Sequence to fold (253 residues):
Amino acid sequence: MSTHRSKQMIAVWETDTRTSKRFVKQAIANGHTVIALKADVEFAGNKSFLSAGGSVDSLLANATSAVVAGGAEDNAAAALAVADIVAAVGAGKAPKLKSVFFVSANGAKPTASYFSRSLYKDLAVAEKQLVDLAAAHPNVSYTIFRPPTLIDTEKMNDVFVFDEFARNKLPPLSNQISYVGLGDAVLEIVETQPRFRNKVAAVNSNTILVQNYKGGDESRKIVWHAFATTSPYILIAAAVVAVGVYVAKRQQH
Fold:
């Protein structure tokens, strides 16, 4: 990465996801100041790491960029972070904020299947909120990242970021990157804005990290969460239909 890029005050919500932890570590190493919603013992004592003590107002008071990096690992928490940003900007409590960087997922994009959209509905809503925020407040831009399958490994692959509309012009992609690679890719774009100002940034690699990869814990957790969230409504709807059919048959006799 270049060493002459301007230093920023970067607000982050979480430091416990794998992507965000990598992002914070490298951002500090690159000379940026990072302020997190809560303290983190791993970065305690580092002059470039600050804690907002759980206050969103304090978190965004002097931040020039906001990064929500854990969307691929904790959908609900990431969506709440975006809601915090939207509310703060609307209330005039983020006066220096210029850019919001949000890690979403491929399943949240408008062209994804209905099933995928239902799994990533929190992220889909958050994406729309950022688009609406930039339209209402032109001084604040967004960049949305939609990474492919994430692999928990320290092995580095040639992760690169590109405009999602250019996918068809690229050579075959592995559709695999590491959490480390994603964290570094997000930081690269934070430092080279406005390259992806008000755009979706796809992240990918040409290198396969794991052969015959069949999915990770996050995918299973997301599917289970979606089932647990929607199954009660499905059962209720089925019961209502069944009662309606029963009543209709009784009325026919």
User: Anything to note?
Assistant: Residues 217-252 form the longest helix (36 residues). The longest strand covers residues 141-146. The radius of gyration is 21 Å. Confidence is low (pLDDT under 50) at residues 216-228.
